[in-house]
Amino acid sequence: MRKGIRYAIDFGDARVGLAKSDIDGILAVPVATIENNQELIKKITEHVTESGCMEIYVGLPKHLSGAIGQAANKAINFAQQLAKVLPDVSVRMMDERLTTTSASARLSESGVNTRQQKGMIDQVAAIELLEQALEFEKRNNQVPGIDLKEVK
Fold first, then answer.
1. What pLDDT was estimated at residue 97?
2. pTM for the whole thing?
């Protein structure tokens, strides 16, 4: 397992969830839920550059059939913008089907009702995404996700 801090981003039209790992890639912790506005890239860049991040996984919201729709295209566009601003950080896309559903179930099991989940669900979905990436790398000794150059 490579050493280095990794971030995961659950990209949404209204809010974006951010999670990060420890340097050993063992734990995924919530960082922030950020409004998706004109300050988004700047705010994420601040988090990422402060920590010395080596890799960012952006969720790719494919349809259950595997097709790429409008939401996936928005996430790809966002990831490309992020990669331009952070040229020294690897930005990769990860299939995120069902992460929000899984995050909601996780929160419900913890006693958080649906109304309370609104501010947390994006961070928890980012944690789900990051945990999947870390587990994949541990099991397969390969970098997970798809390099942006291979997307589209």
1. 62
2. 0.86
